[in-house]
Amino acid sequence: MVLAASVPAALRPARAGAAPPPDNDLAYARLLVAVELLSADFYTNALAAKRFSRGTTDDLRRAFLDEQRHYESVAAILADAGQTPATAADIDFAYPKGAFDSRGSIARVGLSIERIALGSYLGAVGGYQTDALKLPAAQIAANEAQHLSVFTNLTHGRLVGPAFAAPLTIDRASAALDVYTS
Length: 182
Prior knowledge:
By secondary structure, this protein is mostly helical. The chain is built from 5 helices and no strands.
């Protein structure tokens, strides 16, 4: 994946002479890197399964590209702080048996993963101590909600979810990610 250089300046906190974000913010960034790696892995497998119509496949492809940009944004937080962000090679993802066998099974897994992603970013918006990190996290949360609507439509036949999406604390988000790691 491409790193920091391709992240728009508006999505990177101002770093000129600034101290690195506090440990809490870096912990959220590490969590969000894992969320994005899981999301990209999911979309790679979902697209490879070739179970959807052209329109839905286009949506999945677009979401995959979005997840790559999200990864670049949150990985840049770590890289700017002198840390090395995790990559796909660092995490082994596991899915339920038959997760990619049908449109329905893919949609159910996608629904679960996008709920984790949305909740994780909403949790980060509330949990970040560095104000400059909050807007990019909120922007990504808005995009994750769009991804979630694709799977809400596929699984429940509706595009719009709850009026107030649930944020996940860092501990709850981490536990939710554990379901998909081996």
